[in-house]
Write a structure and sequence with these properties.
The model has no long low-confidence stretch (mean pLDDT about 95). It is globular, with a radius of gyration of 23 Å. The protein is an alpha/beta fold and about 500 residues long. The longest helix has 17 residues, at about 75-95. It has 13 helices and 21 strands. The protein folds into 2 domains: about 1-275, 3-Layer(aba) Sandwich (Rossmann fold); about 285-465, no CATH class.
Length: about 500
């Protein structure tokens, strides 16, 4: 069997003002042809799992490319067109194929296109024909569209959040592809959606959260005869489209009615637990008061609304401002994206003190620039390797970075908005978050990997492109009422 493989992964956010292209992907992972095999070897990501499965089945693996990055706003048109053309040209020039495996996120958007993954799958289908199966791995926060469903044979989503099962998801999608090619199974998919947006913060699949039980239920459904895969998509909620909603996708062996019934049962279970997705938040000043009286050795302040992992700019000054105004009795650590400050610090020089204007670098809708008098403590290149998650083993770079010191407050200022899986961003700059009473993280979920008896967390509502109160967002295109904006008495299925 001759199988083409490619990875094109990016999580979009229509509330973000970021546009990412070639340089953004270069800063993460970008490779073509056989170079893909070298980069993903021994990594725990979806495409490496697919390669392992296909090789074990003695398939002829044909790598096209890997373009894998984190979250942002929209992908630049020219970069999307480059990647699309590269994939399509390769397929045309190397026909025939027995199948293709694609690692996608499922929530990508471009400057002038709201469903690029559906567009890409449609274009691939037109080249390969309807008899050649297309298998796709997706992120748990994918926005699965009708075009994506129509132009693929297999769609499998991550099970976990924080994401720790990219590899097993790739394995599953690749194994189903092989069985489909051999005509051992006939995948039949159905999706159901409800008109609801669930806050991401409460969407953990860890024990004690509603998605933990939803995950168990999905796996129980998969034990039924004819059921091949059950995926749930709480969806990336910051999409300004009228067809975005919490989604269930069920794949059976040639049984559409069963797929439809199970997807509705899964959605009903999610709908019944909807209020449990909402987590209490604090404004920065109140959050600091709560942190100072906490008995925990370390308190993580989650700057959720400026989450880099959700597509925000990472340039919020709200928590820094609150920390700087207080006479801290213990040490605190935070960070921010502001390349202007990094350059200014170089000019000021090591161990020198100056007044720095910081914050509001990219997104001036939410964040203002503040003045901080601080000392330049050290410079760093910001390079690291992800220790886990869907980018495990991949290289990334914060770019030139500087640590500023203001009494007990350390501020890590970086050039690039790069999300962290755990504490890689601090660690690569020789900072140990455990040595601080208060430490700030700009992600919505991965901080949970650091929680223990000594470490607790407080969620801060500081403003940004990843808002927590979804019912208060002023959308331009999502005109329909949706939960929690409207308190539906019955489950609001979408057409």
């Amino acid at each position: 069997m001759k199988i083409a493989i490619a990875s094109f992964e990016y999580e979009g956010n229509s509330l973000s003002e970021k546009t990412d292209g070639l340089e953004f992907f270069k800063n993460s992972t970008l490779a073509f042809g056989n170079d893909v095999l070298d980069i993903v070897k021994n990594q725990k990501i979806a495409i490496s799992a697919a390669i392992d499965v296909l090789n074990k089945s003695n398939c002829e693996v044909k790598p096209i490319l890997i373009a894998k990055a984190g979250s942002g706003g929209r992908v630049a048109n020219d970069f999307y067109n480059l990647i699309k053309k590269t994939i399509l040209d390769y397929l045309k020039e190397n026909l025939p194929f027995d199948g293709i495996f694609l690692a996608l996120h499922g929530a990508m958007i471009c400057e002038n296109m709201d469903d690029p993954e559906g567009d890409l799958l449609q274009s691939i289908k037109e080249i390969l024909g309807h008899s050649i199966p297309i298998s796709v791995s997706l992120d748990l926060h994918a926005h699965v569209t009708k075009k994506m469903l129509k132009n693929s044979n297999i769609l499998v989503g991550y099970e976990t959040y924080p994401h720790e099962d990219a590899y097993s998801t790739g394995e599953k999608a690749a194994n189903l592809l092989i069985k489909t090619i051999k005509k051992e199974i006939y995948p039949t998919m159905e999706i159901q959606k409800i008109n609801a947006l669930f806050p991401v913060l409460g969407g953990s699949t860890n024990k004690g959260f509603p998605m933990f039980d939803i995950r168990k239920l999905a796996r129980k459904f998969e034990t039924l005869e004819k059921v091949l895969s059950v995926s749930y998509f709480p969806v990336q909620p910051w999409f300004d489209f009228d067809n975005v909603g919490v989604t269930a996708l069920v794949m059976t062996n040639d049984d559409y009615n069963m797929a439809s019934k199970i997807s509705k049962k899964l959605l009903n279970a999610m709908w019944e637990r909807r209020s449990e997705f909402i987590i209490k938040t604090f404004l920065p000043e109140k959050a600091l008061k709560e942190a100072n009286v906490s008995k925990s050795d370390t308190v993580i302040l989650v700057d959720a609304e400026d989450s880099i992992g959700g597509g925000s700019a990472g340039d919020s000054s709200s928590i820094i401002n609150a920390l700087a105004e207080k006479e801290l009795q213990s040490s605190a650590l935070t960070y921010i994206v502001d390349p202007r400050v990094v350059e200014e610090a170089k000019f000021v020089g090591l161990n020198k003190k100056a007044v720095f204007k910081i914050g509001g670098y990219k997104d001036k809708r939410f964040h203002s620039t503040i003045e901080i008098t601080a000392t330049v403590e050290s410079f760093h290149n910001g390079e690291f390797v992800y220790e886990g998650g869907p980018l495990q083993g991949m290289k990334a770079s914060l770019g030139p970075s500087v640590i500023l010191m203001k009494k007990n407050l350390k501020i890590l200022v970086v050039t690039n908005a790069v999300y962290e899986n755990k504490d890689e961003h601090y660690k690569c700059c020789n900072l140990n978050y455990k040595e601080n009473k208060i430490v700030v993280f700009k992600n919505l979920m991965n901080f949970r990997k650091l929680l223990n008896k000594e470490t607790s967390f407080i969620v801060v509502s500081g403003g940004g492109a990843t808002p927590l109160e979804l019912d208060k967002v002023k959308w331009s295109n999502k005109l329909k009422d949706y939960w929690p904006k409207k308190n539906y008495k019955k489950i609001p299925y979408m057409n």
